[in-house]
Sequence to fold (606 residues):
Amino acid sequence: MPPQTRPIRRLDPVLVDRIAAGEVVERPASAVKELVENALDAGARRIDVVVEDGGRRLIRVTDDGAGMGPDDLALAVDRHATSKLADGDLTRIATLGFRGEALPSIGSVAFLDIVSRPLDAPQAHRIRVEQGVKRPVGPAAHPFGTRVEVRDLFSATPARLKFLKSQRAEAQAVADIVKRLAMAHPGVRFSLGGDSLSGFDHAACGDGEAGLRARLAQVLGLEFRENALPVDAVREGLSLRGFAGLPTYHRANALNQFLYVNGRPVRDKLLHGAVRAAYMDYLPSDRHPALALYVDCDPQDVDVNVHPAKAEVRFRDPGLVRGLIIGALKQTLAGAMHRSATTGADRLDAMMAARGPAQAFQQAWRPAPAADWDWRASPSAPAGLAEAPQAAFSHAPSADARAHAAPAAQEDLDAPLGAARAQVHDTYIIAQTRDGLVIVDQHAAHERLVYERLKAQRAQAGISRQLLLIPIVVDMDGADAARLMEHRDALAQSGLVVEPFGPGAVAVSETPALLGKADIAGVVRDIADALADETPATPLDRRLDHVLATMACHHSVRAGRRLAPDEMNALLREMEATPGSGQCNHGRPTYVELKLADVERLFGRR
Fold:
């Protein structure tokens, strides 16, 4: 039977609006985003958002913006009607909303009620749209501004309701949208209320860097403000501002990365990739920085019309944007010098809150083991894993007993990391400053210093190498050996020369001079493991940095090695002169600073 042909016909306008609503309004948070952006474009200085049942039952957005008269109200709920494209030029979008589809799309799948009053109008007017059916405009009572109510969202399309998440999840998505918009407009007061969420009321902040810092503290908390660095850069008409978290202030995911383009919150792969590249030298691959960055450019240089929800953008010159972000962030992080995250007082507060004074006291005064107790007799004693003692340091003087014997030099006390006064547990250096003390992890700190030295050598004249009198043969898995041979040229650039030595083995003939008597076999095996984690698309510079980081970890001063007072002070001074020394190659802090006030609080003096 031949297929039957059916005539082409126009869809019903209400059905067309519902199809458009599926693109623009995916969930209640999408409707909230459109309505709040309309309020911002209207010049609102205060925006109040209320939701019920995660936005299904009610969404109410009230603002004190310019408002609309009766004629504007009638047009506002028609498709492709907008006040934001005065000249019709789609290449110069200078507002947050412009598609002219949000209100009619919402009205086609819900009950929409808009009440608005311009500043110069004697009264307000109202219009209702009931699941696509527009009612006439009528008078109403309302102060200056606009109130939009959306009730029973998706009641006209019940199938869409089945794909929504739980009430709490939808409410949290609404809160996230309002939070992101509030961070982009610190001069506007934002409030959010409703069930299944923690409401807030963020007062308007001032303009400039101070106002933005205050708003970020309101939204992200005081901890972010204390651990964030200001970013300010301009290149070829493109500007970047905001705050970037210290490398030691990192998170397990990228949810604390807030990126904006011309005041519009976006989730863009180009921008996130640039952020990851900038922090690549400071964080392990499974950790993410916290930051809020704002890119501003000519509207002609960015296309915001590539996604119905306006969540993605496309730049005319993506290389310029990527280069600006990477360069600005690297310069900012390098300018922080040795600064580490200000976590000393926070950790003390968390420890005291978790344990309580009594428990902390008991923990501190736990009885010591008996004097004749031998750990080797314990059933839990390690077997075959203990390292042999290092003969080079078997007769080293005890720094614990000697560091404080002589008075500290005044210039050391005035230095940012102070003067070394003791070494405890052969691992941590205790330094005294004018107004507190600093605890340094000697292994983590020296690991970073060696890494930066190797990078500096590679950038200047190449890493200096030393020829081994007898090559070191390293046995390993055949796949690991083949991988090392594949990256032989890159390893040579890092100062490590390896050659094949039969199946499943390589011979190391030259090593970086800076490594000295490091465990070369262990270095080579760790490098093979690191290269196994890299993908073919990983840039060469990243692979080289990974190799250098592995070498630095092996050569650094190990925990358990005693240091003389001069060695400790030399380590502190080099940390102060080395960018990025506030964290090791794995993103952990190299030191914690405690102000005298923090110590006094521990003893109840404050």
User: Anything to note?
Assistant: Residues 208-335 form a domain with the Ribosomal Protein S5; domain 2 fold (CATH 3.30.230.10). The two ends are 92 Å apart (CA to CA). The longest helix spans residues 344-364.
